[in-house]
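FORM 7B: Structural annotation worksheet

SECTION A. Query
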Amino acid sequence: MTHPQTDTGLLLFAHGARDPQWARPFQAVADRCRAVRGDDRVPLFLGAGGHVRKDIPVLLARLQADHPQVRFTLRQAIGEADAVVAAMADVALAGNAVQVPVR
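SECTION B. Predicted structure
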């Protein structure tokens, strides 16, 4: 997938974790989006909890104050997008998902 570069960027927000394996899917998303230049902030959260509703808007307000020439927008949590919900349901129902050993 290629997209023309513009003078805007794409910020991806995700919850951190100590386990580096946890971040791998989010890094894969970031890698696939690297060529995209949009002005949206995409929360990579399944739902709009405290970070999406409170923390990120505060951060973006600070960024807006520091950079008034930049237009910041925030989109819905990615897990609430119809396409993502449908994709997760498809994978869950397919029965061929990668199996992880239970400890």
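SECTION C. Observations
The chain has one domain: 11-94. The two ends are 38 Å apart (CA to CA).

SECTION D. Sign-off
Analyst initials: ____
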